[in-house]
Amino acid sequence: MAEHRTTNGNHENNAINELDKKIICALQGDFPLVAEPYKVLAEKAGVSEELFLERVKAMEEEKKIRKMGAVLRHREVGFSSNVLVAWKVDPERLDAVAKQMAASPSVSHCYDRTTAPDWPYNLYTMVHGHSREECERIVAGLAAKTGVEERAMLYTKREWKKVSMKYFQET
Questions:
Q1: For residue 102, is pLDDT > 50?
Q2: CB within 8 A of 101, min separation 6: which ones?
Q3: Burial 140-165 (b: 16+ CB within 10 A, else e)
């Protein structure tokens, strides 16, 4: 099941009114898997779909909502093997390589991090497959496509329960 996530910015003089709180509450948790999901969420918040979408857009512009995204519960949809791949990418190629890797349907996360003296890896991808062998093939394909060979592969041993932050919870 997909979950829709929101993150509320913490800005001075950027108060969130009661309507926006209701909309944020509606956006949290399971996202309706229907033809018109925002209509369902708007009904939950007690407003029209038009007003709902208007306020979401405004809150994004006002930085009250910084990101919205889906959380995929990999095992529930058949992915039994997951690997975090740490790549060593030339800094001047980082953005281009990241865009190529992020475009893969097998990659759910792609982000850069600062290196350390004993850890030279600066780009991370989360790769999902139906087996370890499939993950190995996907990673080899990413390496061939980008020309980046040096990597460390860290396989998931245990999946932790994924829980999003909840803001303005209704009581």
A1: yes
A2: 87, 107, 110, 123, 125, 142, 146
A3: eebbeebebeebeeeebeeeeeeeee
- Give pTM, 2 decimals: 0.58
**The total number of residues written for the chain in this structure:** 171
The owner of tokens 């093939």 is 137
Chain centre to alpha carbon of residue 171 = 28
Rounded (5°) CA angle 135-129-34: 150
Q: Are strands 107-112 and 65-71 parallel, antiparallel or unpaired?
A: unpaired
**Residue 71 CA to its chain's centroid (Å):** 6
Higher pLDDT, 100 or 3: 100
Interatomic CA distance for residues 163 and 3, integer angstroms: 9
